[in-house]
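re the bet — no i am not wrong, look at it urself. input seq straight from the record:
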Amino acid sequence: MSKRAADRHDEMEHDAKAPDLGNGASRMRTDQVNDNMGDFEDAWEDDYESGEENQDGDGMEVDEEMDQEDDDEQQEEQEEPELRTYLPGQPLEEGETLEADQSVYVMLHNLDVRAPFLSFDVLQDNLGDERKNFPATAYVAAGTSIPGARDNEVLVMKMSQLHKTQQDDSEDEDDDPDALDEDPVLEYRSIPHNGCVNRLRVMPQQDQRHIAATWAETGKVHVFDLSPYMKSLDVPGTALPKSNKPFATINNHGRYEGYALDWSSLDAGRLLSGDNAGLIYNTTITPSGASTDSAPFRGHKSSVEDLQWSPSERNVFASCSADYTVKIWDTRNKNRSAVSVKASNSDINVITWNHKASYLLASGHDDGVFSVWDLRQFKSNAPTPVATFKWHNAPITSIEWHPTEESVLGVSGADDQVTLWDLSVEPDAEEEGRFTSEGVQVPPQLLFVHQGQSEIKEIHWHKQIPGCVLSTANTGFNIFKTISI
């Protein structure tokens, strides 16, 4: 599948409000992009229309006019269209727009950007784990994706003052009057990058340094140290490096670009990269540079779309490909995978390995299907997925297990949806055939549907803010937390 957007604009309109599933959708407003790198939108800003006040001294005429104004207001209220729940796939009538139901969001912020991010990753910070207080702060590394342009960049961003979503009946405002302030703050540092950033991944071991790898459309994999840029966002006056060049570059892929990239969570500095020629290279990053194995892993008959190191076994990783297969590899054998499974009749775009239940692997496919696999069954001749879902009606673009809840999964698709799932929900006889009034069948495992972005490319859970999801699309960047998780 094509991972880049066909059309790019320096300025674009951003519809970044997302209706929930089954909680009453209303109309969506549209905000205009600013000319700078990016700004948060004020999702609750009110628009006022000024009218002329009647200055006539005749009391009777004034009363009549006031009565007429009351009648007009009542008529406008009667003419106000009825708000109804919107479900994905339903056509919008002429004049209808979507607006988020704020009551189902704990937090929802939208960032407009001048150039879209094809890929990003969350940076670990020193603000603590399992934090639930607001306003929140998040650090993100992202790469711009302007095909063929030399002025692409890697951005290190700090998003602070991320306040809770305003609720009409909220009691939190009385307890904490600052909790619902509406002015998030964005700060960033920029690093020049030659070519579109196909994918960006941050090394999980971030205690000492923040190391990130980028897959460039030039066929090179670059490794950057983001630590000084991260520090400069917190400590004013921090000197930035005189050279913005990466401290290591992997050239083994030649002219073939790629998208597959993953760091080992067990061995710091071990990096896998897969290209469109079907080759996978293993690289070890050290403080002095990079050392890449001369021989690649061979076995896929088409492009390698995604890679995932095992969270429990140092020498094991998984790959997926446009050749419809998922393969499990032992790093000690480069010529043949240990297990190969035909997982779909279409390209397999993304995979995710469960870090809490390491026998579970999920895969997202080009036909909109995503499946969950029990790797213990891969020993059989023809393993089948333990669960398969066909909710998305376009290719799956990103998939990721929740970092602490082993049954919760986040999925995004080219149908402009981010969906959150709880696979521990067991369907019963009544729930299995549940249909809405519009005839749409809703799987009981589906917790939440977030919409409003166009051409969603990637999603990630924030590992230090429970339930917080970040998503990037052609129309901007969202960070949100729902009441469902």
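see?? The first strand starts at residue 13 and ends at 14. told u. also The CA atoms of residues 269 and 285 lie 5 Å apart. so pay up
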